[in-house]
Amino acid sequence: MFRNKMNLYPIKSGNFKLDGGAMFGVVPKSLWSRTNPADNNNMIDIAARCLLIEDGKRLILIDTGMGNKQSDKFYGYYNLWGDDSLDKSLAKKGFHRDDITDVFMTHLHFDHCGGSIQYNKDRTLLEPAFKNAQFWSNKNHWDWATQPNRREKASFLSENILPMQDCEQLKFTKLPKDGDVLKNSALGFDIFFANGHTEKQMIPMIQHGEKTICFMADLLPTVGHLPIPYVMGYDTRPLLTIDEKEKFLNFAADHNYYLFLEHDAHNEIITVKHTEKGVRLKNTYTCKEIFN
Known about the structure:
Blueprint: E1 7-19, H1 20-24, H2 29-32, E2 43-55, E3 58-62, H3 72-76, H4 86-92, E4 102-104, H5 110-113, E5 117-119, E6 126-128, E7 134-137, H6 139-146, H7 158-166, E8 170-172, E9 181-182, E10 190-194, E11 201-208, E12 211-215, H8 238-255, E13 258-260, E14 269-275, E15 278-285, H9 287-291
Parallel strand pairs: 3-4, 4-7, 7-8, 12-13
Antiparallel strand pairs: 1-2, 2-3, 5-6, 9-10, 10-11, 11-12, 13-14, 14-15
């Protein structure tokens, strides 16, 4: 049953761990461990928190997590923890994956789009995990992901990507003609395009009543990444990430944007403010506090 007003729901697709050093690049552990404590293997907690937008007859899911089709060996590298899953989280909100009309992928790294594709019941064929949905990327990023560079090849898994095109459910957003923001995209929200982490990563900026909710993806993985130089070792162009993050966070502080954190296992939404040290944390919120 679709409701008349826009509703937003956090969807927990699972939790995992990543190497803290890789997540913070050149930043010393003595600094990043203050906000993101590591275990004995130097691994830190990471969430795969997706966002569901219910708007009229449209049900848009932003990102889909790792999915469940990879081998136990593959998942063993990422120390999965907790019992969250995309299906359970959707069910708690009163939805099923067959209700989804659009799957918007910020980018095609496996931890953001792996849940978009699944095996059939016999595990003989790969098929869309959302049979009634269109899958949204952009042409520049699609080409980048399907012809991967050696640095990112391990993150762009063909089994996560190519079946979307094979099943003719793939759509591309437009790209901004001027600047880095596409206004009023086909999905109904603005999109900020960032190129430091990977080519044409898309950051949705959703108008929800009087609030602007920004799905930060890998432009701002956790609260601990707020200082401008704190960028991931995974970024392909870290100096560009620094410029893009500084621009976006200053704008977020100016306009009191609400930043939805996909990868922060312990903080869901934050606001930021200007300080003498640059943009820093203002307030933390649960999704329930902001979306209701």
